[in-house]
Each structure stands twice: as structure tokens, then as C-alpha cells.
Design a protein that fits this description.
Largest sheet: 8 strands, antiparallel
Strand content: over 45%
Distance between the termini: 109 Å
Structural class: alpha+beta
Length: about 220
């Protein structure tokens, strides 16, 4: 599981600050009064410690990360998975029932491009979250992965967010047959069919003519 954690302070000019943890962390962004970290490989409940030095004194805040808030599954489905250019297809992201949270946001992505986002507000109990989006297929859609990013906010006055990304999905996009190509194919098939029928009729006529000539010859021979 991965967490996005924000450490902040009321000190206007902190001398330094950071996050203490034994887990893997990466600094995502920072300003004078806050720093945002990405904490990875969270597999159990753990405390994180945000600290800032202000006027020579250390300010310390402890954040608890609980695995009871795990986003166990983020499921993405494309329907249909093979479409012609210019036709509609549906992207659906589904997250099974999640325990108590402040807000849950589902973001539908094409590569890094955001196509759609839907936010679910706090509810009394667990709920399933579903976001759907319809889109016309473009030629280059087959060159991008589609995915869904779920962001779970646990507290209304905090930037503590955990997120999980679905398995990527690919869309198979093909070019529809052009009208002139269709006309050519129909014309060729019609000509071939006409030639086939004509050849059969010609064979039949020639056969009949041959039989008549043969019978006429046999009759004259008998008379002679």
C-alpha cells in the first residue's frame, strides 16, 4: 500500500523539517510551511513522525497509518475491448466496499491524461464506489494504457491520502472500412457473380446446341 502524507507547521519560517520513518519515502513537493511525501510498502499499522525546527525548538507531530483503510482492489473494465474509430466505448472503475473515510475519489486515466473524476463523500458505513465514463474511440487510443487511480482521504482537515492504481487496460481500435472500399468490393463481387452465371448459361446453351446437332446427324445417317 502507498500513502501520500503531508507534514505541515504553523511556523512562518521553519529552519528545517521532514518525516521520520523506516519505510521507503520520497519527497513529492514542498513549500516553506509544508512538505509532501510518498510513503511506500505499508503492510501494517505504523506511526510516522513529522518534525519541524522553529526558532531552535523542535515541533513533532505523530501520524498513524492504519491498514484497516486498505484499498484492497481497484478494478477497471473497458466495454467493449475492441472498437472502430469514432464509436463509443465505456470505461468503468469499481472499488469494493471501503470502510469509513472522509472522501474517496476515482480518477479515470488515459496514460497520464485525466479523462474523468468522481468523488464520493463520507457515508455511515462501507460502500461500493463506481465511476463510469463514455468516450468516442480515437485512432491513437490503442497506443495508451487506460487505468483508474483511487485516492482515499481519511480526515477532512488533513492532506493524508492513500491511493491505489488499477491494472492497466489496452483498447483495440481499428479503422472502419471506407465507403469507397465497400463499393469496390461490392462491384467486384457482382461482376464475378455475373461472369459465373453467364458462363454456366453459355455452357448450357452450347451443350444444348451440341446435342441437337448430334441428334440431327444421327437421323440423317439412318435415312441414308
Amino acid at each position: 500500500m502507498t500513502w501520500k502524507v503531508n507534514c505541515s507547521t504553523n511556523c512562518t519560517e521553519p529552519e528545517m523539517g521532514g518525516l521520520e520513518t523506516s519505510l521507503t519515502k520520497n519527497l513529492l513537493d514542498e513549500q516553506a510551511q509544508w512538505k509532501q511525501f510518498l510513503v511506500s510498502n505499508v503492510s501494517q499499522d505504523i506511526d510516522l513522525h513529522c518534525y519541524f525546527i522553529c526558532s531552535g525548538e523542535q515541533q513533532l507531530k505523530t501520524l498513524n497509518i492504519g491498514t484497516s483503510y486498505l484499498l484492497e482492489q481497484v478494478l477497471l473494465k473497458l466495454q467493449p475491448t475492441r472498437v472502430a474509430v469514432g464509436t463509443w466505448f465505456t470505461i468503468e472503475c469499481r472499488v469494493p466496499a471501503v470502510e469509513a473515510f472522509e472522501s474517496l475519489t476515482l480518477i479515470l486515466l488515459r496514460g497520464k491524461e485525466t479523462l474523468h473524476r468522481k468523488t464520493f463523500e463520507k457515508t455511515p458505513g462501507p460502500q461500493e464506489a463506481v465511476a463510469t465514463y463514455q468516450r468516442l474511440a480515437h485512432r491513437n487510443d490503442s497506443h495508451h494504457n487506460f487505468s483508474c487511480r483511487a485516492e482515499l482521504s481519511l480526515h477532512s482537515h488533513s492532506r493524508e491520502v492513500i491511493f491505489r492504481i488499477s491494472e492497466p487496460r489496452m483498447l483495440d481500435v481499428y479503422e472502419p472500412m471506407q465507403d469507397n472500399q465497400m463499393v469496390i468490393i461490392i462491384t467486384v463481387v457482382s461482376v464475378l457473380l455475373f461472369l459465373f452465371v453467364t458462363s454456366i448459361l453459355l455452357c448450357f446453351v452450347l451443350g444444348q446446341h451440341w446435342r441437337q446437332n448430334r441428334r440431327g446427324g444421327e437421323t440423317e445417317a439412318q435415312r441414308g
